[in-house]
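Z., the sequence and structure:
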Amino acid sequence: MHYEIIIIGGGLGGLTAGAKLAKEGKKVLLLEQHDRPGGCATTFTRKDFTLEVGLHEMDGPHAKDLKVRIFRDLGISDRVTLLDLPEFYRFVNGRQDVVIPHDPEEAERRLAELFPGEKEGLKTYFHYLVNSRKILADTAGSPERSIGHFLDEHIGNEDLKLILLGNLGYFHDDPYTLSLNYYLVAQGSYYGGNASFVKGGSQKLSDALMSVIEENGGTVMLNSLATGISFEGGRPAGVSWESTAGAEKVAGTDNAREIVVNAAVPNLAGNLLPEGQGRILSEKIEEMKTGASLLTVYFGFRKSLKEIGNSYYSMFVFDPSVESQKDIVRNNHAGFDERSFTFVDYSQVDSALAPPDKGVGAVCCIDYASEWEGMERKTYLNKKSDVAETFIARCEEFIPGFKDAVEFVEVATPLTVRRYTMNPAGAVYGFAQNPGKPSGYLSVLPGNIHIASAWGKFGGGFSGSIYSGYMTALDILRKR
């Protein structure tokens, strides 16, 4: 069949692009290899619990948040409920225990009281965050540096640097290789005064975007894996696919004038493009680094953790052995008994992820596929069980009664992420956002192939993927 646009992949980038294009009257086909849309923006059910796969907190909505405009345009604001979160995060490392609010002025004031000798450095840090877009425009063309080097230049106290980097895992695994430009825009949006969680889980957002596509005449095919992009006259003209479910495998090819790729760029180069085109793209991305992955431990609780005294939605725990920024990378490869982690307690808001008398939470930490590959299945499962017990014990230290409250636990490793998203090494944020990361790889793509994913120019995360999908749709609509 012939479509105007075929979208490969139903993560947030592909769904947002498809929703906008279908709403503007384009004939759209979206292919998604999983049995549900969303990529990392999904949920799954165990017992009484709805487990949130990837969303801890989404920056916004606030005055400068582009998602407000996007959701209004697509009618998403009427389909999902965004719950305000009580704080940005609580940071604990054995030396400091501080709660960081989303309001930048209040955050600066609170930290200045704790670190009175760092008032000027804090003033500079928050000035850059609040005015990030203007500062980046004014410094366009200048050599990029890292957030790690920026903090070393302006702040002396190592614990204060660690507090400010509490949520570093939202972006990257090493402050010294994370672009300051990227960090300022992303972190600045979290300090926009507000952050939110999608009531019922991020699957509600993904389902809403899929509904917009279908209600406007578009087609979404789940359990359908794209297997190749065909060319005619030197130009991409169609997408081949095969079913991933059912006893009898079904395959087909559909044609389109424009192709949107909501998938990993290395997979586009190695699996989807013809050999010649794929080789050109592979050479262009050869020196680009793939970002880190995550390990997540999902919990279902027989009671809300509020009942046993927990008061915080999001807690970042840094091991005391992390004494400075340079220790962060080493710690990300340490044993799970000392690796820094995040704990999110969804029962602190009306998340609708569990019955009223129960709760849901998750531990998350930076991890790498290489630490799990090559194991026999029994060894792999035993390691997952050991990881779960380790984090239960560590959470018990901060939330007494945690262990007794656990009714259900399940561990997802980087290999789990890779299986469900097909991202190389289970990377959740696409290419690493290193200082000076080149974007020239996009220029070697044929003019009618567009990247709308965490692997594109906007980077990863929920917001980055949504922006990528929406801007891709606008680029296509502007074409004559």
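The mean pLDDT is 96. Residues 377-398 form the longest helix (22 residues).

Let me know what you think.
H.
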